[in-house]
Amino acid sequence: MPVERTLVMVKPDGVRRGLVGEIISRFERKGFRIAGLKMLKMSRELAEKFYSVHKGKPFFDALIEFITSGPVVAMVIEGDSAVKVARLMIGSTDGREALPGTIRGDYALSKTENVVHASDSVESANYEIGLLFSKEELM
């Protein structure tokens, strides 16, 4: 299996609910190495770049409002097939449909406020990591 890096971000609802430690520990217990970690408040400009693939979709403005509504915790995790495994660990986008045992299945009841984000491809991971972390911030 290829060693990859991916971005995982605890969204404002997860931070507000005090789930940051639980989410980080799930990835650590799985065996991933944390290569970067920080808390930040996204500006509208950064959020629009981050979610640029959704520009023009009906939910875009609500997504931007939500992700800028409070601090997020972004982390770069590294390990075998990190992108695929992280996506499996977080579960379906709609928390009402996510399987129990996944992060969203255990903690989310909405499609919008779904606690956590994870990159959906290596290309997306590289783009998102580049937006949120400098090379110097990564170990």
Commentary on this structure:
- The protein is α+β, with helices and mostly antiparallel strands.
- The chain has a single domain (3-134), classed as Alpha-Beta Plaits, CATH 3.30.70.
- It contains 7 helices and 4 strands; from the N terminus they run βααβααβααβα.
- The relative contact order is 0.25.
- Helices cover 40% and strands 20% of the residues.
- It starts with a strand and ends in a 7-residue tail after the last helix.
- A 4-stranded antiparallel beta sheet has the order 2-3-1-4, with helices on both faces.
- The model has no long low-confidence stretch (mean pLDDT 96).
- It has helices at 12-16, 20-30, 44-50, 60-67, 82-90, 103-107, 122-132, and strands at residues 3-10, 33-40, 72-80, 116-118.
Please describe the topology of this protein.
Blueprint: E1 3-10, H1 12-16, H2 20-30, E2 33-40, H3 44-50, H4 60-67, E3 72-80, H5 82-90, H6 103-107, E4 116-118, H7 122-132
Antiparallel strand pairs: 1-3, 1-4, 2-3
- The number of distinct structural domains comes to 1
Structural class: alpha+beta
Q: Which class in CATH terms?
A: Alpha Beta
Estimate percent helicity.
40-55%
| Oligomeric assembly | single chain
CATH architecture assignment: 2-Layer Sandwich
CATH superfamily: Nucleoside diphosphate kinase-like domain
Counting DSSP E segments of at least 2 residues, the number of strands comes to: 4
> Taking all residues together, what is the mean pLDDT?
96
Biggest β-sheet, characterized? Answer: 4 strands, antiparallel
| CATH topology tier name | Alpha-Beta Plaits
Form type: globular
Radius of gyration over all CA atoms, rounded: 14 Å
Low-confidence segments, ≥5 residues, pLDDT <50? none
